[in-house]
Amino acid sequence: MARADSDRWDLATSVGATATMVAAQRAFNDLVYHGQRSHLIDHIKARGWSVSSHTVKELNAANGFQYPDDEVAQAFADVTYSSAVLTR
Asked: In this structure, are residues 18 and 72 in contact, taking their beta carbons and an 8 Å threshold?
């Protein structure tokens, strides 16, 4: 069957939202370095920076939101956002 400009298709309805999120999680996982490394926060604190760091789950709670309890959300719950200011 040939495709037409009027065809409607989107990933979530074709393969399902869960499959789409699993694919996104796998793609995100490829962006993360899983090898041995020193921790960024410890590294920059030792050099005079004031650092705050919070997980996605903590940030949701701090803003009055309940973090989702599903498998996909839990995979991202420990993603950490950090902010640093040089104090010297």
From this structure: yes
**Residue 16: both structure tokens together:** 């399902």
For residue 20, what are its two tokens?
Answer: 């789409």
**pTM, two decimal places:** 0.52
* Tokens representing residue 30 in the block: 């490829």
Domain ranges of the chain: 14-86
DSSP-assigned beta bridge partners for residue 53: 82
The tens-digit pLDDT sequence of the chain (88 residues) is: 576 777 676 655 666 777 777 778 788 777 776 677 668 888 899 999 999 999 999 999 999 999 998 888 888 887 889 999 998 7
